[in-house]
Amino acid sequence: MTRQAKPYSDPYLAGVGIGAVLLAAYVLVGRGLGASGAFSSLAAAGTAVIQGTSKAAAAPATAPYLTSGIGTFQTDWLVLELLGVTIGGALSAWFAGRLRRTVERGTGISARQRILTAIVGGILMGLGAKFARGCTSGQALTGGALLSAGSWIFIIACFASGYAAAPFVKKLWSGECKV
User: Fold this and answer.
1) Contact 138/34 with Cβ under 8 angstroms?
2) What is the pLDDT of residues 24-36, one digit of tens each?
3) What is the DSSP string of 60-96?
4) What is the pLDDT of residue 58?
5) What's the pTM?
6) Are 161 and 124 contacting, i.e. CB atoms less than 8 angstroms apart?
7) CA–CA distance, 53 with 56 (Å, rounded to integer)
8) Which residues contact 126 (CB under 8 A, 6 or more apart)?
């Protein structure tokens, strides 16, 4: 039995919800939202496991840039946040009748190419987040809420880049352009 997909949430209501979650994060844990810190925690914990030491003992000698200002894997709330986002997204898709195994792609790209470009893009975004000392969600949501000039410049540049790249991506997606 196939479930009928429900309409997407109202974007304005979702924006207010994200703002409320951001405010709650500041009130409850004293920090804003972001995702890259969770990956740093996992990398630091993995390094400590490979070395056979505790994270605290491994941090100063191995990779202090991975562990500065974060707790352990078990207690770092950003890891729990990312886990919650993953589980919540899956549950939301299931309740809305949109959970299915598929590769979203245009006619001009194969499923394999789409997966490969998604992986490469994700790696580049992760590296960029480490160089920028924050991911897009941390920069835009948290930095923007704090009125950080760098965060506002960043998000404006992201939107401008997206609009500039949109015609090429649209042609690539529709099959008019081959890479």
Assistant:
1) yes
2) 888 887 777 777 7
3) HHS-HHHHTT---TTT-HHHHHHHHHHHHHHHHHHHT
4) 42
5) 0.62
6) no
7) 8
8) 36, 39
